[in-house]
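Researcher: Re-running this chain for the archive, since the previous output was lost when a drive failed. Same request as before.
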Amino acid sequence: MKSSKNKLTFDFEDGKGPVAAKRHRNPDGSEGGWVADTARVEPTCYIGPNARVFGYARMYGYAWVYENARVYEDACVYENARVYGNALVYGNTKIAFDVKINKGYHKDLIIINETSSIIWNINK
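Model: Regenerated structure tokens:
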């Protein structure tokens, strides 16, 4: 994390260098993980302290991203979906309802079944 002219930056290690970002404040008041200013995360969402949301990713509803998970590019996680472990959710992936993703690479998927769980998927 760097600070220049009262603007925080963070390097998401995606090859783009430090970008404007801030830590998310979780609904319970705890400090969450880093969120790029270009990403959109509703205040009802939970971002774990080691999780990252960047690019133009979006999170709505009561979605959670935690542990070492990353949500980026144009991915969207919403409703009660959970992304955790070492999962990478990116591209145009849409994760919704009670879907749980806990590891692997997930690009350009649409998973909206209310009870799906993805344990491992490699889709680069």
